[in-house]
Q: What sequence folds into this?
C-alpha cells in the first residue's frame, strides 16, 4: 500500500504543480485577469501603468537568444505577430511583451501554453535602438529591422515571476 501511495504521489506531483520562473507569487483575490482585459482597462482609464498586477495569457513567442522575454497573445486564438506587425504601435498591438525584471531569470526557449505573470504593466516608449534589439532577438529579418525609425509606444510588462497554468 505504501508503494502505491508513493508512486501515485510522484505521478500527481509531477503533473499537477505549476512551474515557476523568477519569484514565486501569490495570486490576488479573484486570480489573474486576462491580459487583454487589463490593457483595455488601462486604455479606457488613460492610465500609463499598473503596479503589482497578475495577468494571464497564452505565450506566443519566447526570446530565442536567451529566453529573457516572452510575449502573450492579447486575444484568444490570435496568431503570433509577424515582424512587420510588431512594427505597429500600441493601438494595433496583438501581443504584450513581458520582460523579466533586472534580467533576474529566464524561461526555456521552447516554453508554450498559458501562464500567469506578476509584475508591472505599462504603456512604454521604446526607442528605435530598443525596437531593433527586440526584433533581432525575435529572429526578424535584417530588412524588417532596417525599417525601424523613431520611437513607438507599446504595452509592456516587467515581471518578477511567471507561473505555468
A:
Amino acid at each position: 500500500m505504501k508503494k502505491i501511495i508513493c508512486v501515485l504521489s510522484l505521478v500527481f506531483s509531477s503533473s499537477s504543480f505549476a512551474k515557476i520562473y523568477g519569484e514565486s507569487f501569490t495570486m490576488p483575490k479573484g486570480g489573474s485577469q486576462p491580459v487583454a482585459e487589463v490593457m483595455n482597462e488601462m486604455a479606457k482609464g488613460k492610465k500609463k501603468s499598473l503596479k503589482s498586477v497578475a495577468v494571464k495569457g497564452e505565450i506566443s513567442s519566447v526570446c530565442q537568444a536567451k529566453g529573457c522575454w516572452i510575449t502573450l497573445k492579447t486575444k484568444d486564438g490570435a496568431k503570433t505577430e509577424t515582424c512587420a506587425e510588431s512594427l505597429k504601435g500600441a493601438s494595433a498591438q496583438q501581443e504584450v511583451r513581458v520582460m523579466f525584471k533586472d534580467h533576474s531569470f529566464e524561461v526555456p526557449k521552447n516554453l508554450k501554453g498559458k501562464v500567469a505573470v506578476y509584475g508591472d504593466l505599462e504603456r512604454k516608449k521604446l526607442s528605435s535602438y530598443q525596437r531593433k534589439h527586440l526584433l533581432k532577438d525575435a529572429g526578424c529579418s535584417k530588412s524588417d529591422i532596417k525599417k525601424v525609425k523613431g520611437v513607438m509606444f507599446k504595452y509592456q510588462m516587467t515581471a518578477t515571476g511567471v507561473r505555468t497554468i
Q: What stands out?
A: The chain has four helices and seven strands. The two ends are 31 Å apart (CA to CA). Confidence is low (pLDDT under 50) at residues 5-15.
